[in-house]
Write a structure and sequence with these properties.
The structure holds two protein chains of two kinds. Chain A is an alpha+beta fold. Chain A contains five helices and five strands, in the order ββαβββαααα. Classes of the chains: A alpha+beta, B alpha+beta. Chains A and B meet through helix 2, helix 3, helix 4 and helix 5 of A and helix 1 and helix 17 of B.
């Protein structure tokens, strides 16, 4: 059995200390060690973006990192966006109103990619939004309502 | 004043849960003591298994059990045939269904051979590497035509052939009209539809409760009720002992209704054997080979036209790749056969197909389910004829449309639901006119395009038409109940994979009961709550389950009126339902909430009249005599870079008719998503196999799903011919966006590259393939 390593990772402002195998993926750590199952896993090779999280404020693929690499770092997942279903983040609210999701599987990753994008640019063009979304695959929506949702969110957050 | 809920753009009930990451998907199920399964899959497409050595794996710490086919005993048997062959005379059908674990021989790369169960998925996968399988590789059967040659290797030796099925269907007499034709167009078309690539891979979790004798299975299935009944049968349990839950599913698109996948058979069995919960979650690499595809057909088709471009008849002979097994029967090729007829008045039709076994992943329906292949054939034949006869491509379609006074229109062939293909209603010319106007067709071809061409731009337009057979039987059911809280519960047996059922189904009940949509809780996909029905497929959820909900909600409405009439001592026609209340019209103080009324309808003391049924609840069912036929036009303006052959879609339009619309917002989403998948199919996605039957591009880096940069803004518009086959007048819409995109691309690209004498007879394309086709055309011209 591989030697376990101690990690201390801050997730959604709460510090978690765990013993993990060095090979444990960060996505598996979040989902199965911490029970934060809002982060989804779609391809495990870094293309689909469903597992995107914020790593020290930057969007990152949690399936392409090991949990040990997150030791001492701050992570934010979709569960950290809002307190509950009645108090949605403006991005979540905009996705709801613009029908920016269908099956909802890719949605948490898309939201976590958009947070840093909108932090930098609250007046994006459609072209910029589509570029920002191009690292996340969605098989249901054809992206149009997602683009509309991002525009709406930006408008509200300005 | 009654509030309307039906037909409104209402935002979805299910979204807050999904947006906050608090919804349950199968991989989110976490049970105490849960074990994890992983599978050794064949690296060969076709090979004899000489020996399997699992001894090292069993020694690994954390491995609980390892199973090969022989370890399954009597449980090892070929899976059930999901769709039986159609009642068409002289049909040949060789039934070969998949086995839980390959024994003796593997028939496609990715076929499971060994199941490992361990304390964690990591350990289970470590143990896969401990297992040694000796193979004797055989030549693989990859190409459909070669598969039918005398000396081809056989996949199922006992059949003596690689033919899976042969079906001939006829309408009129094609040969008799051929001499009258002014023009005959004959071509070979090849059409491949790839893999569904739902963002969520498949998964199964099973828990056996020994004390209650009950099995609970969480499954990424589109048909939980059928899985429950099938599992009970396989495991020797009664249906009441099995609960199947299809929670939130991360996209279905067809392959999640294949039944039974090997893992679906094995994981529940092993959970009982080991008396511990077991989870298996597919990874993407497995998904590319183990989850079903749709793939390809080759059509040798001809059409006879009169001098005005009217179709006299169509003759089509095609091969259909069914993969290594054929558990889903002939649904896909039957759909192709039907869709060659399109929305055209074709009086003479001869169609025959041969389904062929190949050493590849099993083929089952994927959004469109063979309709794409048929639509491609007829739309291309029309384009080629229009060119020969110098008739405008939209005009040749118009001339051949079934006229509105000919409905119901009998196509005189048998459809995938085994009843004659009769279109219930339709009116196609207004859809075409609307499309021409919205894309500004005549202005574009007369003025804009010549101007752009003069500037050296390669800009083309395409316009194609299609029908979509939807809402087929057999039936679905629903239970509607007013809770004592005043909330309304709507329960149905279908599964849901993102179609917005929690909202559209609620709208149907809301309309009947006068209860706001957000006060209605829809439950789908839990067989403990409802255990009748067939599943979500063939664009049938809104039509079949929707109408069952409509009927049940109407029954509840009647009951509410009856109980309230007694309560208020007022005639029913003076009562009105509004905002969760029932009241005597114009007497504000005579009002009661539906929750209070529900309590009154469930007395716990005293006597009731004989025949009284408690509560405000009803269950009802809906089974259409046949499917409802949607229709539409897709139009597109595309620019092609002549150097790189990269494309830029400038405009995309869908004019669609699916009868009455329940929620236009959800409908638009369905169409956008369908078009995106259609664009993927037409220009980006191709499953590439080598001669050994190896899939060469089984990752998202090599198999390109369209991104937000590849899918344009899609404009939608709607016609409305109601279906006479159901009370709501609805037709299905789930597949509409995806169906005609292939021929649309072919037509628009030929138009854009008008300087090349180009015929596009195949899908999928991509820039590289387009370059090859152009080179071939140029070389031919020399």
């Amino acid at each position: 059995m591989t030697r376990l390593r101690s990690v201390a990772i801050t997730v959604n402002n709460q510090e978690y200390k765990r013993e993990v195998e060095p090979r444990m993926l960060l996505s598996d750590f979040l989902r199965h060690e911490l029970g934060l199952t809002g982060t989804h896993v779609g391809c495990e090779h870094g293309v689909c973006g469903a597992c995107s999280i914020l790593f020290d404020g930057e969007s990152a693929r949690s399936c392409l990192m090991f949990a040990v690499q997150a030791d001492g770092h701050a992570i934010r997942t979709v569960e950290g966006l809002s307190a509950d279903e009645d108090h949605l983040h403006p991005i979540q609210q905009a996705f709801w109103e613009a029908h920016g999701l269908q099956c909802g599987f890719c949605t948490p990753g898309i939201l976590m990619s958009l947070i840093p994008f909108l932090e930098k640019n609250l007046d994006p063009t459609e072209e910029e939004i589509r570029h920002a979304l191009s690292g996340n695959l969605c098989r249901c929506t054809g992206y149009q309502h997602i683009v509309d949702a991002v525009k709406l969110a930006a408008e509200r957050m300005r | 004043m009654t509030t309307r809920y039906f037909g409104k753009r209402i935002k979805r009930n299910e979204d807050p849960r999904l947006l906050t990451g608090r919804s349950l998907f199968v991989d989110d199920v976490d049970l105490p003591g849960m074990l994890h399964a992983a599978f050794v899959r064949s690296p060969y497409a076709h090979a004899r298994i000489i020996n399997i050595d699992v001894s090292q794996a069993l020694k690994r710490e954390g491995v609980v059990a390892v199973y090969i086919a022989d370890d399954l005993g009597d449980y090892w048997k070929p899976g059930p045939l999901l769709v039986s062959p159609p009642p068409i005379a002289d049909t040949v059908f060789n039934e070969k269904t998949q086995v839980p674990l390959a024994k003796d021989k593997v028939k496609f790369s990715g076929e499971p051979i060994v199941m490992v169960v361990a304390e964690s998925r990591y350990i289970a996968e470590d143990a896969l590497a401990d297992i040694y399988v000796d193979y004797e590789p055989f030549s693989a059967v990859v190409d459909m035509e070669k598969a039918l040659e005398e000396d081809s290797p056989l996949i199922h030796e006992d059949l003596g052939t690689n033919i899976a099925a042969r079906v001939v269907q006829k309408k009129g007499d094609y040969e008799s009209i051929k001499p009258d034709a002014a023009l005959i167009i004959k071509r070979r078309f090849s059409y491949e539809h790839g893999c569904a690539a739902a963002m969520e891979n498949r998964g199964v979790v099973a828990e056996w409760d020994r004390r209650s004798g009950r099995l609970t299975v969480w499954d990424t299935t589109q048909a939980p009720v059928v899985i429950r009944n099938g599992l009970a049968d396989l495991l020797g349990l009664s249906e009441r002992q099995v609960r199947v839950i299809a929670p939130f599913i991360g996209g279905g698109f067809g392959p999640k209704i294949m039944m039974f996948y090997q893992e679906e058979v094995l994981v529940p069995w092993v959970a009982i054997q080991l008396d511990r919960p077991v989870k298996w979650i597919e990874d993407r690499a497995e998904n590319f080979v183990a989850t079903t595809h749709e793939r390809g057909q080759i059509h040798d088709a001809e059409a006879a036209f009169d001098k005005d471009g009217r179709i006299l008849g169509v003759h089509d002979v095609f091969l259909h790749d069914t993969g290594a097994y054929d558990p889903y029967g002939l649904t896909v090729p039957l759909n192709s056969q039907a869709n060659v007829l399109g929305l055209y008045d074709i009086k003479n039709y001869h169609s025959e197909f041969t389904a062929v076994f190949t050493n590849k992943t099993i083929v089952t329906p994927y959004r469109g389910a063979g309709r794409q292949h048929g639509v491609f054939v007829i739309e291309r034949l029309l384009d080629l004829a229009a060119k020969e006869l110098k008739i405008d491509r939209t005009e040749i379609r118009r001339r051949n449309f079934i006229p509105p006074d000919k409905f119901p229109y009998n196509n005189e062939i048998i459809y995938q639901d085994f009843v004659p293909l009769i279109y219930d209603s339709g009116n196609y010319e207004p859809l075409l006119d609307d499309a021409l106007e919205k894309i500004d067709y005549h202005h574009f071809i007369k003025e804009i395009q010549p101007k752009l061409r003069a500037e050296g731009k390669h800009v083309g337009i395409g316009i194609v038409a299609y029908v979509e057979g939807t809402g087929i039987g057999p039936y679905e059911g629903a239970k509607v109940q007013v809770m004592s809280s005043g909330r309304v519960s709507v329960v149905t047996g279908v599964g849901t994979q993102g179609q917005g059922h929690f909202t559209s189904f609620a709208q149907i009940a809301a309309e009947q009961l006068g209860v706001p949509v957000d006060k209605i809780d829809v439950v789908t996909g839990d067989t403990d709550q409802f255990y009748w029905g067939a599943g979500t497929f063939a664009s049938r959820g809104a039509v079949v389950a929707g109408n069952a909900i409509y009927e049940a909600a109407r029954d509840v409405r009647k009951k509410i009126l009856q109980v309230a009439s007694e309560h208020f001592n007022a005639p029913e026609d003076e009562l009105e339902l509004f905002d969760g209340q029932i009241r005597v019209a114009d007497v504000p103080r005579m009002s009661i909430s539906l929750g209070e009324l529900a309590k009154k309808a469930n007395p716990t003391r005293g006597a009731v009249k004989p025949g009284t049924q408690p509560g405000l609840e009803a269950t009802n069912y809906f089974g259409p005599e046949r499917g409802a036929t949607s229709s539409g036009i897709h139009a597109m303006i595309i620019e092609v870079d002549p150097e790189t052959l990269q494309i830029h879609i400038q405009k995309y339009l869908v004019v669609h008719d699916c009868g009455k619309v329940i929620n236009p917002l959800i409908l638009d989403g369905q169409i956008h998503g369908g078009v995106a998948q259609g664009i993927g199919n037409a220009f980006y996605e191709r499953l590439v196999y080598d001669d050994d039957g190896q899939l060469l591009n089984g990752t998202f880096m090599d198999y390109h799903l369209p991104s937000a940069l590849d899918v344009p803004r899609i404009e939608t518009a709607h016609g409305e011919t109601v279906s006479p086959l159901n009370a709501m007048g609805v037709k299905g819409a789930g597949e509409a966006g995806a169906i005609p995109v292939g021929p649309l691309f072919a037509q628009a690209l030929e138009d854009a590259l008008h300087n090349v004498d180009l015929e596009i007879l195949e899908i999928p394309l991509n820039s590289n393939r387009l370059w090859e086709i152009i080179n071939d055309a140029n070389n031919k011209g020399k």
